[in-house]
């Protein structure tokens, strides 16, 4: 279970950073992390890598499978959350520029 | 990429994707169900969902049924599977080429449990492995599908490559119907691409290896080498199980099989990543020394069958199978929508080709789900007296599936009617379960999970029905 939680957290962070570095004109990034793009791109790679090491440390080879199999689920969950603008509801953020 | 080349790739993607997608939808969906095959078996036979420890007394009684007095020298193809956490009863099973069938025995007493002879989980195994076709033809078809899956995958990646990463998490449900289905198809396809590739290819190669091994007959198991260790003093199953525990540490889930005048105990598949089928017998109590993964075939079985997986991994694998089925379903729907647009541009009158595509899609996506739920219902409801229960359940499954196809061929709004039926059957699974088994059970989560999946299918089809009414 720890391996699964680590994997989900790592992939979720990677997805959020991926969305954050998308340009605004694509009207998908409803939030922005306050770091430079290069740092965010680095974190996008770092988070799942740490999750991979963590889950393998806890579960061995099973951790590798849990890590790889959990990726599509959390990515889809983040996509749907983002698509249906649940971030806006949760954090009450209304960025007019992004709604054009 | 030149427009001409792109249009050729689109052509290949669509026209290989449609026929392959029909078969792969069934393979992915049945594969997802096979992930929980033993749990489904218990759902179909609620009397076997008990929590009781295995006892020596139980094993002794089970031995009497496996090797009846006076018939010990007769050839039998039965085997006795030991209880373990996923299926906590003895199973005295025989394989008839399609199904594993036989009595379930209580783990404490070894007495047969009063269960109905149902198709069980092996129905989906057989469907997944060779579509209930003659063995060689079925396996060839499945392996062909596994290999041809590469064409739509590769052509899809080529077509989408330019925006592969930037549109990785793009989904626009409020856009036009075609656009939102395409987004959905791309979203699932890109996020699951490596896993679908590995699972599809490993399944295809496994089937090719099975075909090759069936063409060159080989003994059921590798004979044990001469050993200097003395044979067991007792030929009882208990002594063999004790020896198995001494050698491997754990035997729960392993199985006994009488071969010739000897009795073999096979190591449980879930004990190791690669399935090696290590075994001992009363005359050879020390197993052959095998590497952890002796060959490529055993590695593929480890990756594809995942017998070693625990509940978390099993749920993830199940979910991936369902997502794979959604990938195929969205592709089939997109194919139909594009064909409809193109055909209507050429001639506004209705086309038989389009009707056939519509019927095949409806029968594949909705009909298969109806047939699966119908099978689950039929294992709990009384069978027709004219047929034995297993034949009745199998016949019902294929009749519902064929009925869905014929209905969709005859009626223009068949998909909506069938969605409504699917909704009723999905939501009705919970009441059927509660009404046809004792309310108090040792494994409530098992029943709740299967019923929950039925309710989820029902709600999803209700959502799809409402959307189809609005559009």
Rg result of chain A: 15 Å
Average pLDDT of chain A? 81
Envelope shape of chain B: globular
Tell me the series of helices and strands of chain A, N- to C-terminal: HHHH
Count all strands of chain B and give the number: 7
The largest pleated sheet of chain B is described as: 7 strands, antiparallel
Note the overall shape of chain A.
globular
Low-confidence stretches of chain B: none
Characterise this structure.
The complex is a heterodimer of chains A (100) and B (471). Chain A is mainly alpha-helical. Chain A has one domain (2-99). Chain A has helices at residues 2-20, 37-59, 61-83, 86-91. Chain A starts with a helix and ends in a 9-residue tail after the last helix. Chain B is mainly α and 471 residues long. Among the domains of chain B are: 218-305, no CATH class; 350-471, no CATH class. Chain B has helices at residues 3-35, 37-44, 56-66, 122-130, 135-148, 150-160, 177-191, 193-215, 237-248, 296-305, 311-346, 352-380, 389-410, 414-435, 444-470; strands at 79-81, 90-95, 100-101, 104-105, 255-259, 262-266, 279-281. In chain B, strands 1, 2, 3, 4, 5, 6 and 7 form a seven-stranded antiparallel beta sheet that branches. In chain B, strand 1 (79-81) and strand 2 (90-95) form a beta hairpin. Chain A binds chain B through residues 1, 4, 15, 18-19, 22, 26, 28, 61-62, 65-66, 68-73, 75-76, 78-80, 82-84, and chain B through 166, 168-173, 187-188, 191-192, 194-195, 273, 308-310, 312-313, 316-317, 319-320, 323.
Q: What is the fold's blueprint, element by element?
A:
The complex is a heterodimer of chains A (100) and B (471).
Chain A: H1 2-20, H2 37-59, H3 61-83, H4 86-91
Chain B: H1 3-35, H2 37-44, H3 56-66, E1 79-81, E2 90-95, E3 100-101, E4 104-105, H4 122-130, H5 135-148, H6 150-160, H7 177-191, H8 193-215, H9 237-248, E5 255-259, E6 262-266, E7 279-281, H10 296-305, H11 311-346, H12 352-380, H13 389-410, H14 414-435, H15 444-470
Antiparallel strand pairs in B: 1-2, 1-5, 2-3, 2-4, 5-6, 6-7
Helix pairs in contact in B: 1-4, 1-5, 1-6, 1-11, 1-12, 5-8, 7-11, 8-10, 11-12, 12-13, 12-14, 14-15
